[in-house]
Specification:
With 276 residues, the chain is α+β, with helices and mostly antiparallel strands. It has two domains: 1-30 and 236-271, no CATH class; 37-93 and 121-233, Sandwich (Immunoglobulin-like). It is 32% helix and 33% strand. The chain has seven helices and twelve strands. The chain has helices at 2-14, 19-30, 138-143, 148-155, 159-171, 235-246, 248-270, and strands at residues 56-58, 62-64, 71-79, 85-90, 93-104, 108-121, 124-128, 175-178, 183-186, 192-200, 207-215, 222-233. It has a six-stranded mixed beta sheet. A four-stranded antiparallel beta sheet has the order 1-3-10-9, with no helix packed on it. Helix 1 (2-14) runs antiparallel to helix 2 and helix 2 runs antiparallel to helix 7 (248-270). It is globular.
Length: 276
Amino acid sequence: MLRDCVSVAGLLSKAGVGFASVLVAALAVALVPPASAEQAPGSPPPCDGGSAVHLRADPPQVFVELLYRGTVLNVQADLPRPQPVAVVLEGEYGHVGLKRSGRVWGVLWMKVGDVEFDDVPTVYLVSTSGKLSRLGSAATRARHRVGYEALAARAGGDRSLFDEFVKLKEKAGLFSVQEGGVQFAPTDSGGAHLSSSLSLPPKVPAGRYRIRLIGFDGGTPRCLGSLSVPVEHRGLVRALHDLAFEHGLLYGCVAVLVAMLAGLGTGLIFGRGGAH
């Protein structure tokens, strides 16, 4: 998105439009996702049968403020013994509608169609104790929503397009699968202390995120424990978010005003050094 904004700004600047003005305006628009990409609220799958293991996360709550640059959630639990496991952090599930762009006549990039997926999480971070293929069959992993194949089976649509969608999410830090990211250490009681790190990106949406610990001991998967981690926007970040989504027209006017001021400031600063 940022690369596209810079490219467009560069082209328009050649036509006499201030580069800073166009860039700021483009970035302002990029901050607000199009309505077609909005995701309907849904809930991650529950931990059926209750929690057999006390799962902990540090920090237990995340606050997104102006200088937030992402954070790392340290997930821990104590098990009777080491076993194959997967730690899954999920945002809300829902429908995703996207615009598909393509090159028309070999020159222009334009909308060429719509892409839709069902039952897709806003954020999906997975950490496992080993290879996904060794945790269980594809059907078993799909039942517990572990791995991209499990998401693709539920999402429907073109699999190749879903793979591209996953790449975009990975680039934004919203999707990740770490095979071997779960570590075990012996405890004084003879058990195993589980630890795993999950990285929340700078652009993580606000909401409540569920973390599930899935055990695959003996080939019979079971949800061993779960917990909820709230992510809350604060300060200027929350004010801008509320302004963009609740007062779109006002937000657009402010974005245009900021772009005009930026262009004027750039002209005053650099205009004096131009050629005569």
